[in-house]
Design goal:
With 158 residues, the chain is mainly α. It has one domain. The protein is built from 7 helices and no strands.
């Protein structure tokens, strides 16, 4: 059972990155243009704001999934946090560059900033919960996940 969990956590960040890529690869404004006639403009504005707000969560979730991947191979260290931070923000940059080549999409510095803010917020939360908050269930979960998925109980890799 642990091997299934370990495998799932190992591939989750890569599946998630693939889904982000697919989501940013496909957009056709004609497919939603008819909705403007059916839906109240305020609702359309709210949906647009929610989608823009989604940048904060999208790359924050990527950061969390990558942290979980690294926790499979030992306790969280500062260097692991830095690597995951660079990977998460770097993937946001790659995704924005990718959008230069997608019809109806564009590169946006504002989107990069929103992605980075989402990553930093989750990074700070995870760091505080993992290192500073002994009473936190989330912190306990993160600290125990390394031990749970460790194949050899006598040593921790990395």
């Amino acid at each position: 059972m642990r091997s299934i969990g370990r495998f799932t956590i190992s591939i989750a960040p890569f599946i998630y990155m693939y889904l982000i890529w697919q989501q940013t690869s496909h957009f056709d404004p004609d497919s939603v243009s008819d909705l403007t006639k059916l839906i109240n403009p305020f609702v359309i504005l709210a949906i647009g704001a929610a989608l823009e707000f989604g940048h904060f969560f999208e790359f924050g979730i990527l950061y969390l999934l990558l942290i979980m991947f690294f926790l499979l191979y030992g306790p969280l260290k500062k260097w692991k946090e830095v690597v995951v931070l660079v990977l998460s923000i770097g993937y946001g940059v790659i995704d924005e560059i990718h959008q230069l080549y997608v019809p109806f999409r564009s590169f946006s510095i504002i989107d990069l900033v929103k992605n980075a803010i989402g990553v930093f917020v989750i990074a700070i939360l995870i760091h505080r919960k993992y290192f500073n908050s002994n009473g936190s269930r989330f912190g306990r979960f993160l600290r125990r996940s390394t031990l749970f998925f460790k194949e050899d109980k006598s040593k921790v890799n990395f």
